């Protein structure tokens, strides 16, 4: 009996020694890499970046108005990686471009986390924070041409409890068509036509913005649309085509001001 107890004690001691990490194990760079966290970056803005004149920016958090959809991508080009939402009833994900890009739809006024994983080596986490619903829309537009200058007037309505500041207007999205012109096939991939103008629309108010554009065109202006806007809401910047319904999707630019966006 005594011999069995001694043997059992020795075996237990051996197991404990084997289980304890050595200094060499702790400092082993391979193991550190295996268990590394957040070695994958996240980007917002256009997936193709500057290829189509729409900047892609690095982000470390995502602050979205409830009900808004924004697209993000990762720095990992593998098609095997996956992004998951900690709470799908709060943040819904739709995957694009072979697991490199996702649309994030914030459904509830709650914080949540997105987690990216690929094998043992790739990890990334992105915190999602809610902002009040973005009740922002264009309600009226008019245009006239005089002496080679187009004057476009647009009335915007801010139905939120926070001011909205517009810093840039993309007239490419206005698609100003004169007699004989052909409409753009895809405005998203064409070079923007920015007008820099800072306009603040107070919470709960409407405001009419007037934009002027010199154009080497002759004939009658037969159609036009609303411009795309670069604007700030609750200290966060967005790029979106603001039409006659509340904004439901936008490119997210975090704290990137319009002057930085243009660089």
Helices and strands in order, then pairings?
Layout (H helix, E strand, L loop, with lengths): L1 H18 L3 H4 L2 H6 L7 E4 L10 E4 L1 E5 L3 E6 L7 E4 L5 E6 L4 E6 L5 E7 L3 E10 L4 E11 L2 E10 L5 E7 L6 E2 L15 E8 L4 E9 L6 E3 L4 E6 L2 E6 L9 E2 L5 H5 L1
Parallel strand pairs: 3-9
Antiparallel strand pairs: 1-2, 1-4, 4-7, 5-8, 6-7, 8-9, 10-11, 11-15, 12-14, 12-17, 13-16, 17-18, 18-19
Task: Supply database-style keywords.
4 helices, mainly beta, 5-stranded antiparallel sheet, single chain, 263 residues
How much strand content do the residues show?
35-45%
Any idea what the radius of gyration is?
26 Å
Estimate the helix proportion, in percent.
10-25%
Largest sheet: 5 strands, antiparallel
Poorly predicted runs: 1-8, 10-34
Q: Classify the oligomer.
A: single chain
**Secondary structure: number of strands:** 19
Give the overall shape.
globular
- Structural class determined from secondary elements: mainly beta
